[in-house]
Amino acid sequence: MERKESQSIGDVLRIAFQENCMQDRLDEMKAINLWPAVIGMENAAACRRPTVYDGVMTVGVPNASLRHELSMNRSAIRNALNSMIGKNSISEIRFIS
After folding, report:
1. Closest to 69 in 3D by CA, of 91, 92, 49, 43
2. Which CATH superfamily is domain 24-96 in?
3. Most CB contacts within 10 A, which of 3, 12, 85, 89?
């Protein structure tokens, strides 16, 4: 690999992740980290940490009323996450007890 000009570490890592098909996993991790910002810190504290696999986010919500409220706003939450990530990384959100 011949270098023509210097690059920032961030640029090198971004290229490496894209070339090794790891960008999707990074976007899924961004969605997990953005979860509290989207639903609020208080609601996020009442949930278990989300997991994401193949674009499907699964969130444990022990409180039935909160689970129902989040379920009713599922598409808005998904749209907000995808908007903050900058692409459609989350295709579905599942709420479990």
Report:
1. 43
2. DnaA, N-terminal domain (3.30.300.180)
3. 89
* Claim: this prediction has a pTM higher than 0.85: no
Nearest by Cα to 93 from 69, 77, 83, 40: 77
Distance CA 20, CA 15 (A): 9
Q: Pull the structure tokens for residue 41.
A: 């810190």
Q: Torsions phi, psi of 96, nearest 5?
A: -120, 160
What does the domain layout of the chain look like in residue ranges? 24-96
How does strand 56-60 pair with strand 51-53? antiparallel
Q: Which two tokens stand for residue 11?
A: 């640029």
- Separation of alpha carbons 63 and 66, rounded Å: 5
